[in-house]
């Protein structure tokens, strides 16, 4: 399968996903960059989602990041990691051709990461069966 590449960055979107608590997740910073939005706009859109608390807790993980300003000063800013479901809900709130293109690319990246995780799990299970056969 061909990997989609963002026009803003030469790295495929898949390389921008991170594994957090065993799930592929994406940072709100990456979403802002690829959707060509200000990061504060993405965070505001996440805060404005009218969703149940349980869904919010499962799919949006707030984090604090260190950011270097143009003058070299380092400050802490809010950010957020989101699951595929969180990202999908957020993407549904944005409109436009760029949004659709990025959303499709993210879907493909999340699906690729899921497949990689499934293959790794299958390898680990095979290894455990070989090393510790059931008697």
What does this structure look like?
This protein has one domain (13-131). With 135 residues, the chain is α+β, with helices and mostly antiparallel strands. The relative contact order is 0.17. The chain is built from five helices and four strands; from the N terminus they run E-E-H-H-H-E-E-H-H. A four-stranded antiparallel sheet has the order 1-2-4-3. A hairpin with a 2-residue loop joins strand 1 (18-20) and strand 2 (23-27). It is globular.
Number of helices: 5
Termini, distance in Å?
41 Å
For the largest beta-sheet, the strand count, sense and barrel status come to: 4 strands, antiparallel
Mean pLDDT: 79
| Share of β-strand residues | 15-25%
Number of domains: 1
Order of helices and strands: EEHHHEEHH
Q: What's the β-strand tally?
A: 4
In the predicted model, the low-confidence regions spanning at least 5 consecutive residues are 1-10
C-alpha-based Rg, rounded: 18 Å
Q: What is the 3D shape?
A: globular
Q: Helix/strand-derived class? A: alpha+beta
């Amino acid at each position: 399968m061909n990997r989609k590449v963002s026009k803003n960055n030469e790295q495929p979107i898949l390389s921008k996903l991170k594994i957090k608590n065993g799930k592929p997740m994406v940072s709100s910073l990456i979403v802002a960059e690829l959707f060509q939005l200000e990061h504060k706009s993405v965070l505001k859109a996440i805060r404005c989602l009218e969703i149940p608390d349980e869904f919010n807790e499962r799919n949006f993980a707030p984090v604090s990041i260190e950011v270097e300003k143009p003058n070299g000063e380092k400050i802490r800013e809010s950010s957020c990691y989101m699951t595929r479901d969180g990202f999908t809900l957020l993407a549904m709130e944005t409109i436009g051709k760029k949004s659709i293109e990025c959303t499709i690319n993210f879907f493909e990246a999340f699906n690729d990461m899921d497949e990689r995780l499934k293959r790794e799990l299958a390898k680990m299970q095979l290894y455990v069966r070989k090393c510790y056969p059931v008697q």
